[in-house]
Amino acid sequence: MHIGILIFDEVEVLDACGPFEVFSVAARLQGKDRDPEAIKVTLVSAYPERAVVVARGGLKLTADTTIADAPPFSLLLVPGGVTAEVERDPRVIEWIAERSSTPIVASVCTGAFLLAEAGILTNQTVTTHWEDQAELAARYPGLTVVGGLRWVQQGRIFTSAGISAGIDLALHLTGLADPGLPTRVARQMDYAWQAEGE
């Protein structure tokens, strides 16, 4: 499983770093059992010209690659945050759209707006942060936006509720590599995993 996590200026720290932690812990646990490369995580900058992005709160994150050079992934995760500017960047939206055939596509929080803008979310049942659900439904009326769930699955596309819900979704996604992994990773992280979804 090769996971790409898109990062951009004003990305919500936990939206990106929460799943990153889940996947990196899963990789460590997998490495003890089998191939240490069974799960690999790559941070992808939304900006072709720079690897460093400034997340919400001023945290600087350095990507492994950019949208100009990113390899194919088996799982693409698009976090949220303040997405207004990146939604208007045609380079980013076109890149996400080009990755629509990635075997698994997931969003955390307002990352759902980026997937919708790229045409990946069109008529599915989805979720996002509770504060943004009405706006998502209004802007993309073909979507059925639901609340009260940590994450929602529609075929190979997953969306999660706000911020910390991305950890629950990421734990679920590790189970695609190994059904026993989510429980082990949650225990290693000392995290009370909420496994419910749709």
From TrEMBL:
Record-linked PANTHER family: ARAC-FAMILY TRANSCRIPTIONAL REGULATOR, DJ-1_PFPI DOMAIN-CONTAINING PROTEIN
GO BP field: regulation of DNA-templated transcription
InterPro entries xref list: Class_I_gatase-like (IPR029062), DJ-1/PfpI (IPR002818), INH-QAR (IPR052158)
Name of this chain's protein: DJ-1/PfpI family protein
Residue span(s) of domain DJ-1/PfpI: 3-173
Pfam families: DJ-1_PfpI (PF01965)
Highest taxon in the source lineage: Bacteria
